[in-house]
Recover the amino acids of this structure.
């Protein structure tokens, strides 16, 4: 047998032994399980494309943050509320000599902004213990208009924390009676009165308050007010002591209101919650 024949025979015997073994080798399929957690991978560059000193390993797919919706989540016309302010009724029991009583109505827009209108009547009857006069403010009307900003506009409309602004105006009449002027030199005492004094006032208020649900559509509201007098006219012969709706003396006041709310939307759930 020649050398070439021996080489050919050797190759043939080798292939006949290897090919059956290769045919029996089991091929592993590609793993495409979507529920399997993502595998970490090495990264050699940062997010700006600059090379790292050392490669880092982290998940290729990171959680993404959902964009927060900062806009309104309730319908435009959310509700209408009507309230009765009885704060001065409580203060009268404590000895306060002037009162302002009002009713108000508000329209809730997106449970966010609330235009407000307040209408009321104020009067006074004050005789200072050490004074020489009696001030009597006749029942006079006043009106206020403004708006509230509800910080909880994405929450349950039954509860509010808000800041507000008001502008108020009143034209009123008052009497100053029992004015006593004594003269030690002449040893005489004169008494007189200033009747039918007329004045008007323009003023503003900055307030902060809360509203909580009591039962069904009934709520209670509290707020603290700081008042600013923009323009106050004098009477013909005097300066008014009391301004209806604005009070007397102190710039600070408050209001307690019993509130009835009429919903204008069918649901108290935010629009996002219903998606």
């Amino acid at each position: 047998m020649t050398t070439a024949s021996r080489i050919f025979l050797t190759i043939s015997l080798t292939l006949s032994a290897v090919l059956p073994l290769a045919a029996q080798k089991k091929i592993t399929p590609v793993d495409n399980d979507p529920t399997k957690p993502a595998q970490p991978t090495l990264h050699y560059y940062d997010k700006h494309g600059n090379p790292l000193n050392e490669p880092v390993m982290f998940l290729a797919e990171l959680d993404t943050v959902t964009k927060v919706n900062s806009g309104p989540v309730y319908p435009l016309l959310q509700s209408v509320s009507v309230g009765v302010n009885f704060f001065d009724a409580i203060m009268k029991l404590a000895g306060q000599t002037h009162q302002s009583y009002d009713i108000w109505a508000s329209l809730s827009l997106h449970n966010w902004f609330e235009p407000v209108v307040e209408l009321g009547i104020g009067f006074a009857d004050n005789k200072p213990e050490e004074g020489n006069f009696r001030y009597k403010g006749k029942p006079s009307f006043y009106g206020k208009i403004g708006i509230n900003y509800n910080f909880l506009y994405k929450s349950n409309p039954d509860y509010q924390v808000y800041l507000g602004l008001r502008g108020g105006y009143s034209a009123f009449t008052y009497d100053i009676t029992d004015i006593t002027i004594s003269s030690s030199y002449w040893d005489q005492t004169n008494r007189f009165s200033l009747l039918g004094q007329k004045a008007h006032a323009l003023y503003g208020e900055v307030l902060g308050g809360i509203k909580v649900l009591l039962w069904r559509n009934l709520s209670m509201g509290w707020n603290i007010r700081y008042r600013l007098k923009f323009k106050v006219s004098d009477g013909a012969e005097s300066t008014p002591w009391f301004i209806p709706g604005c009070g007397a003396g102190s710039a600070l006041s408050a209001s307690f209101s019993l509130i009835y709310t009429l919903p204008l939307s069918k649901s108290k759930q935010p629009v996002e919650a219903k998606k």
In short: The longest strand covers residues 188-215.
